[in-house]
Amino acid sequence: MYDIESLHCATSVDDAVRALAEDPQAIVVAGGTDVLVKIREGKFAGAHLVSIHELRDELDGVTLSDDGTVEIGPITWFHHVTTSPVIQATVATLGDACDTPGGPQLRVSGTIGGNVCNAATSADSASTLFAYGALLDVRGPRGERTIPIEEWYAGPGRSTKERDEVLVKIRIPKDHYEGFTGHYFKYGKRRALEIATMGCCCLVKLSADKRRVEDVRLAFGVAGPTPMRAHGAEDGVRGLTVAEAAERVGALAQADTNPRDSWRASKEFRLQLIKEMAKRSLVEAARKGGAEI
User: Range of 22's domain?
Assistant: First the structure.
C-alpha cells in the first residue's frame, strides 16, 4: 500500500511551484520510480505529492539551442535521452549512461531529472553530468536561478535545490562537450537491475595528431559522499601521450577520491575499482576520439 495523503496534479510549472509553496510537506513526483519506492518503505508516510508528470510541453524532450547548448527537460525518460538524435550527436556519453539504470521498464518511466534531484552519489547520470559540467535551472517562488552541477550536491541524498523549487532544465553548453569523446563505465555485480558499486565517466579531447591528451575530465559516482571530479588526476595527465596518461591516471584518481566501506563493497575494493576504471575509461574515450591504442 502507498500511504499518500494528497496528490496535486500540476497544470504548469508555475502551478507546481505554487502548490509546493502553499504546502510545507509537499514533494515533487514525476516518474515515481524513486519516490513511490520510498513511500512504500514508509519513509514518506502520509505523503503530500505534487505531480509534474503531465507537464510534457514545458519539461519533456531534448533540444539544441542556436548557440549549441544541449537542453534536456527534467521529465525526459532515460530511454528518450539515450535515443535522442541531439544527444547522440553532441553528448553521446550521457546517452550511454542513461542506458544503464535498472532495466527496460525503469528506463521508460524513470526520468533524468528525478535521477538528479534524488542526489544519490550512485545515480547513473551523475558522474557524466559532472564531467560535462551541466547547468541546472530551477524555478521557485523567488524566481529562477541556475545551479552549476558542482554546487548541486549538499551531501548524500541532499541537493542545494530548495524544497519549493522545481528543476526545469538541464543544460550542457557547447564548449563543455565540443571536441570531446567519452566513456561511461558502471561497475556492479550484475549487468542490469543493479545500483552502481562505482561509476566513472572520462571525457578526452585529443591533440590534432591523436597522440596526446589535450584536455580531460574525469568524474566518479560512489567515490565519495557525492559525485566528484578528479581534478588532480586531470591536471596530472593533461598534455601526456595517451599511453602515458593511461599509466598514471589510476593512481592519481585514487588520491583524489574518498570511497567508503558499505555492504556493497569495501573501501579497498572501491579504490582498486577507481584505479582500473579510470584507466579503462580514459583509454576507451581516447580510442573513440581516434587514438591508436
Answer: 4-51
